[in-house]
Structure formats: structure tokens, C-alpha cells
Amino acid sequence: MTMKQTKIVLIDDHKLFREGVKRILEFEPSFKVVAEGEDGYVATSLVKEHQPDVVLMDINMPQLNGVQATADLVKHFPDLKVIILSIHDDESYVTHVLKTGAQGYLLKEMDSDSLIEAIKVVREGGSYLHPKVTHNLVKEYRRLAGESVHGTGVAEPNINCRKPLHLLTSRECEVLQLLTDGKSNRAVAETLYISEKTVKNHVSNILQKMNVNDRTQAVVSAIRKGWVEVHL
Q: What is this structure's pTM?
């Protein structure tokens, strides 16, 4: 049975970086880089020509940046999945890009295994944010929630952390807390002295039990329900 490959277009103005990413992706048999370009302007023509499943795109490029290019691509190719590659972990960049329709936001410092995992998640219809980005979004969410409460003249409530043992196992609760702390799968594995494969299984179980699509939704939901502690 022939494996269906995920066709990828890579857009980044640094050729050396493109070559490095392409080399990483070539180690994954289910991936195929069908085209690459150096600017947002060429992205539309490359997508039209090669009809990829996923576009990996830098956010800072001359001429047309990744945010504008993503908006154009999503408008003309609604089934296309776009993942942003960036050096910026500021939540303002992230929220802006996600509003344009990107399904993923990765930091260029991430390891190769996480890059491959992110592409697979997005390809299957999920979304993927770099763990550090998720943590920053959580911090901003808490800050804005606090300002909103203070603005009403009501004291900010304390969130009493209560583990959802009615839904998750003790180990899954530990994993959920570490995801809230911004840990990657590898970091979770190192913290709990378990394998990355086991961590991935735990994460999948958490998402299924919480009825959410990705780890970001799981973290935000857990915060709202008081299931985790938020360390600012």
C-alpha cells in the first residue's frame, strides 16, 4: 500500500535556513517538499502550481511578510494549512497570525521532532503552537482576566486548583499541568522520567477526554475550570 505523502511548500528568505528545514523534513517518509521560495509574493504562485497540503512560512520577509501572505493564501485556497515559522514569541504576533487563518505558530528554536509532529497535527486538521508561545498566551490571558475583574471594582478571585480525577488519571493531570507550564513533549518526558511516546499517548488521551482539538484548547479550558495552577 503506497503511503500518501504530505506535500509541503517552504517559504523563507534565508536560503540556509530553508535548506536546513528541508533536510529535516526529508527524513520523514510521509513528507515531500515540492517547492520553496524566498518571499510571500511567490507563495501564491507556488501553491497554485504545486497544490501542497501545508505551507511553512517565515513571518518576517521583504516585500510581502508572512502575515499578509497567509491572509492571501487562506482567502484563495481555503483548504490549505499554513504554519508560521518565527523568532518572535510575543503574543501579539501569535494572535495576529492566527486571526488571518494560520493553523500553526512555531518558533525557529524548536527541535526537529516537534517540527515533524506539528506538521502532522496541522495536516490532520488540528492546530499547533510552540509550547513557549502557549505559555505566553496563557500569561496574557490571566493578565487580561485580572484587569477585567479589577476594572469592575471586584477583587480578583483565587482559582483553587482541583485535579479533574473524575475525568483524567493522576498522570494525565501531571501532564496537563506541565503543558500549562509551557513544557514541550520532550521536556514533559524528562520531568516525569517517561518516554516521549508515552507523553504523546497521554496528550492524546487528555484531548479526547476533554473533547478538545489541541493542547492549547486543553490548557485554556483547564485554566477556566481551575484544574491547573498558573505560574506567572
A: 0.68
